[in-house]
Amino acid sequence: MPSDTTSRDTLISIRNVEKHFGKVTALNGVSVDIREGEFFSLLGPSGCGKTTLLRMISGFEMPSAGDIHIGGEDMSEVPPNLRPTNMVFQSYAIFPHLTVAENVGYGLKKQRLAKAELAARVDEALALVDLDGYGTREPHALSGGQRQRVALARALIMKPKVLLLDEPLSALDKKLREAMQSELRHLQRTVGITFVLVTHDQEEALTMSDRIAVMFDGRISQLDTPEGIYKKPADQRVASFIGVMNFLPAQVTSASDRTLGIDVAALGKLSCPQDDRFAKGDKLKVGIRPEMLTIVYDGEKAEKNSVPAKVADIAYYGDMTYYDVVFGDGSHSASVSMRNTAGRPILPIGAMTRIRWGPESIVLLED
Amino acid sequence: MAEAASKQRKRPALRFLSPNEWRGLALISPALGYAVLMLAAPLLLVFLLSMWTQNYLDLDTTLTFANYREAITDPLYRLLMIRSIIISGIVTVVTVILAYPVAYFVAFYGGPRKSMWLLLITIPFWTSYLIRIFLWKVILGYNGVVNSSLLGLGLIEEPLTIILYNANAVVITLAHAWAPFAILPIYVALSRIDTSLLEAARDLGDGPVRRFFRVTLPLSMSGVVAATLIVFIPTVGDYVTPRLLGGTNGLMIANMIQIQFGKANNAPLGSALAVSAMVIVASISIAYVLLNRRFLKSRG
Ligand SMILES: Nc1ncnc2c1ncn2[C@@H]1O[C@H](COP(=O)(O)OP(=O)(O)OP(=O)(O)O)[C@@H](O)[C@H]1O
Ligand SMILES: [Mg+2]
């Protein structure tokens, strides 16, 4: 579970930052505060400006407009080598002419430590990433996962205020990536340093982060906890980027001080808490997650919030089954996921059934 | 699978090379043949010749090391050999030091016009080497460009004589002539450096100077080593430049070899000098490569 960081102080403050590469606008007015000690992710599709934002925090790119403060200090005149940040590069950037120990100790060389102390610090950093005894290895004799750990150790040994990671897991295979995800999360809690992770993998962002900034087209569309982003996506793009979301067209039929009455295609009329974004007559989209829809089996009581539907397709995942169902008149469909527990036979394609939903699990999204 | 295996077994014993290997051999054979004919054969002949003896017009073909004894012990030959190595060493150092910044500029700041820069670097080759030497004569001479400019500016009272017909002139001319050969391998090594490595060094606290000595230079050493050898090996044996610009104090070993083959009519001694020079240059080069071997290993 993500740790509670809401009460912590702001460490990185990014204000109205823009970046233009010639005619290309990579960032278009980004403002965000990153807190001390949190695991923060920048999530978004390819080309949305995640790397550009990260490189600005590290100092490799300068904002075209706006400013960045780290620990209260204006960074506009501070070069990368003097910033309290360290980076784990996507390609790991392990120095090929140095051994693992020399790589890890690279940044400490300047401090002119005694040989024994340097060696001790390097060993400590290697132990932190489970690479005890790899010090004398040459980088080319390492696997991808091991290189990644060397890159981590090399950055962490500097005891930075912020560790920046640009898609550090994207080069690893699925198994290793999942193992490294929990390891990174664990590491972050052990060292207590602020991590800023760039990723385009929504699952990775959800499982690892305290907070996520979802970016599209050089802007932050939503900034929230993983749960907030998953349960209450701010708009349709965020909703469809994070997990699977069913969208159904709807219209506001009544708006009072406290409730909003809407008519949802296929599901029918329902009432939601009041929402400023909508007025009577507005068209909107209703979003509902597949796991919030349930198949009503024979023998179970048909409840109020349920509608008839037909199974159009099935995908069996062992523990789960995903159904594509078509509602009533056939013009709307949705994806439903069901845990395969006892007493829930898998329905065949073409089977007629009922789908139940909970009004509280519905998200209203602007059209 | 089984079919492939049986095919392998059926391969005739005579065909010890696979079709691919034959193709490779066919591709290199013209160059190989040419090299054998034009390099290995004359070299063997020179070896043989160096162990014979010249008796006026006849060649005594009994094998002897007497020529080598003379080549190594005679003070004049020794002086010329040492001078050749020193001049060539200076040329190499000057050339590589001047070439490095040029290669660095093209590799990191060449932008989209890299190939234009590389083309410009080869411009000196568009004229013959001999013409370039004569041009240097015009530039460096008693009444040459350098002297008349300096005189005209009132910087000197009399024309400088230290820039022509001596070792300085040889160094200047050779360094200019070989600069492109030094620039290219250094450029290649520099442009192969992954920029994220340079950023990583910066990220870990290095300023531009420290980063250069800790990352850029070590990672481009393969190019520096190649450039050094490319300049050093041929310039030790350079003949034209010292002949035309070196005066008497700028003569090098190749000039003496030519004299032995020509005026002195002692081809065996000339051959012995040539072989000695070759062995010395090869030893120096090998020692140099061994000293730098940690920079030259291939990296995964
Ligand atoms: N040096 C540059 N010169 C020109 N355009 C650039 C440069 N760097 C980035 N861009 C452009 O800025 C936009 C944002 O790029 P950025 O690398 O930040 O994307 P990203 O979100 O990291 O994408 P990805 O997930 O593919 O890495 C892209 O349109 C990209 O083409
Ligand atoms: Mg990126």
Short description:
The complex is a heterodimer of chains A (367) and B (300). With 367 residues, chain A is of the alpha+beta class.
What fold name stands as the CATH topology of the largest domain in chain A?
A: Rossmann fold
Poorly predicted ranges of chain B:
1-7
Quaternary structure: heterodimer
Number of strands of chain A: 20
Query: What small molecules does this complex bind?
Result: adenosine-5'-triphosphate, magnesium ion
Distance between the termini of chain B: 32 Å
Shape of chain A: globular
Low-confidence runs of at least 5 consecutive residues of chain A:
none
Task: Describe the strand arrangement of the main beta sheet of chain A, using strand numbers.
Answer: 6-7-8-3-9-10
**CATH homologous group name of the largest domain in chain A:** P-loop containing nucleotide triphosphate hydrolases
Topology:
The complex is a heterodimer of chains A (367) and B (300).
Chain A: E1 10-21, E2 24-35, E3 39-43, H1 50-58, E4 65-70, E5 73-74, E6 85-88, H2 100-104, H3 115-128, H4 144-156, E7 162-166, H5 174-191, E8 194-199, H6 202-208, E9 211-216, E10 219-224, H7 226-231, H8 236-241, E11 246-255, E12 259-264, E13 268-273, E14 283-288, E15 293-296, E16 306-316, E17 320-327, E18 333-339, E19 352-357, E20 363-366
Parallel strand pairs in A: 3-8, 3-9, 6-7, 7-8
Antiparallel strand pairs in A: 1-2, 1-4, 4-5, 9-10, 11-12, 11-14, 12-13, 14-20, 15-19, 16-17, 16-19, 17-18
Chain B: H1 2-10, H2 19-50, E1 53-55, E2 58-60, H3 66-73, H4 75-109, H5 114-121, H6 129-140, H7 145-152, H8 167-191, H9 195-203, H10 208-236, H11 240-245, H12 253-261, H13 267-291, H14 293-296
Antiparallel strand pairs in B: 1-2
Helix pairs in contact in B: 2-13, 3-13, 4-8, 4-10, 8-10, 9-10, 10-13, 12-13
The complex binds adenosine-5'-triphosphate and magnesium ion.
